[in-house]
What we know:
Elements (H helix, E strand, L loop, with lengths): L9 H4 L5 H5 L9 E4 L4 E4 L8 H5 L28 E7 L3 E6 L18 E4 L4 H9 L17 H7 L4 E5 L2 E7 L9 H10 L2 H7 L4 E3 L27 H11 L5 E7 L4 H15 L2 E7 L4 H5 L9 E7 L5 H4 L22 H10 L11 H13 L3 E12 L11 E2 L3 E2 L10
Parallel strand pairs: 9-10, 9-11
Antiparallel strand pairs: 1-2, 3-4, 4-5, 6-12, 7-11, 7-12, 8-12, 13-14
Helix pairs in contact: 6-8
Amino acid sequence: MLAVKWGxxxxxxxxxxxxxEYAAGKSKSISxxxxxxxxGKITITLxxxxxxxxxxxxFQELGLVxxxxxxxxxxxxxxxxxxxxxxxxxxxxxxxxDGIRNPDWTDTTIxxxxxxxxxxxxxxxxxxxxxxxxxxxxxxDVFDWGDQIPxxxxxxxxxxxxxxxKKQATLSTFYFFMNTQSKPFSSQxxxxxxxxxxxxxxxxxxxxxxxxxxCWFIPQxxxxxxxxxxxxxxxxxxxNIAKAKQLVQQSGMAGQxxxxxxxxxxxxxxxxxxxxxxxxxxxxKATTKxxxxxxxxxxxxxxKSTNPQTGFADWNQDFPNPSDFYLLMDANSIQPTNNExxxxxxDPHIQSELKVLNQVPASKLQSVASRWEQLDExxxxxxxxxxYGQQQxxxxxxxxxxxxxxxxxxxxxxxxxxxxxxxx
Length: 424
């Protein structure tokens, strides 16, 4: 996981003894991890308590692999990293792969994890219009829940496929990052200007009405989501462009050139087109730089070659703990490559709070709920990110699929084992 430079590496490098040194190439092994081949016992030593570490161990990226496995990405020939009802085969990078039912898996192999009903062929595409039309006309069977149905097609979907379509709430945060370490967003007033001028309802319309407008980094439904009013106005209200222009002037950053980084994927490129236009309206000189879908996050996460000023970002829950979202505000997450703290926030108050809050075990999260809320209120007031929405996602299938049997998982979305054809 560290050798292939996973973006979430700071979940490990910040807490496992020797992991940071290994990731930096200063040691050949991780001193805090020992394995006893005779007993099968693995011992991990942490540098400090971390309440969410059991959740971290459940990441796919931390899956155990055989000794001698190559220390590089093996995309087309994946390692035997686990067992389950499906086997991944026939991988064509950035184009397709197959999920084949495991012939050795039955409904009783592990209680609660059933065998699959169908084999799955996954096509990877960025054209959500084509995706949605294919499912609507039944030439494809499952729409990717990580995408959005284009607004122009929503009336057809809701009228022609109401029995096989449903909106599902997610624990997610969609935002525009603003690099706090370089102009113009090194100025808090400049960052405030963006938030004051942001039209969250317009962004929701671009997303087919599938955003709940918000200003908070910790989403609703998660411990730590604030109950107070947003510091710069009601997120559901109209924006204040005049005030935004005034703040840009006060910041001394008027006329600054800004490059807005955009993912080449609908409706995300529409989000950034709107955002670029807003920046120009309030006093900056902004242009958009569009990056291929699959290369976007590795590109904006590379500080050495890119060090982006601002652009699209989002985060979906990995595990039910606010520390998962605050990885993106943690100074320890700033990395030369695969950086996740795109705003490059390095705030002593946030660091001091995380040092305490990150230690709290999951079973005691409610005891520090108010402290997480206060931290998120502080982050919103400092305008470290222009948060605009918590997303609802589509569960949308062809008429061949038994919609009543399909399970939508709050973290992983479509549960392949629940997908089955209607009875003939």
